[in-house]
Amino acid sequence: MLKLKDLHTEYITDEKGKKKSVIIPVEDFYELMADIEDLAIVAERRDEPVIPHQDLLKDLKKNGLL
């Protein structure tokens, strides 16, 4: 996950020097978009039931998947 301090940002300012827009490298943009998509998936799934890791391993072994 990108941290704000790690972004290579450039700013577009108005005539008074107030920041209006941000320019970031395309690679950083795509990484940020991937992070946003991941967070959206987590938010959508937050109410789904969870199972303990050990139970998952047992099920996978039982079904021959592990």
| Number of domain modules | 1
Average predicted local confidence, pLDDT: 94
Strand content: 5-15%
Structural class of the helices, strands and pairings?
Answer: alpha+beta
Biggest sheet record: 2 strands, antiparallel
Instruction: Tally the helices.
Output: 2
How do the strands of the widest beta sheet line up side by side? 1-2
Structural key phrases:
2 helices, 66 residues, alpha+beta, two-stranded antiparallel sheet, 2 strands
What does this structure look like?
The chain has 66 residues and is α+β, with helices and mostly antiparallel strands. It has one domain (4-62). 45% of the residues lie in helices and 14% in strands. It has a two-stranded antiparallel ribbon. The mean pLDDT is 94.
Short description:
This protein has 66 residues and is α+β, with helices and mostly antiparallel strands.
Helix and strand arrangement:
Layout: E1 10-13, E2 19-23, H1 26-45, H2 53-62
Antiparallel strand pairs: 1-2
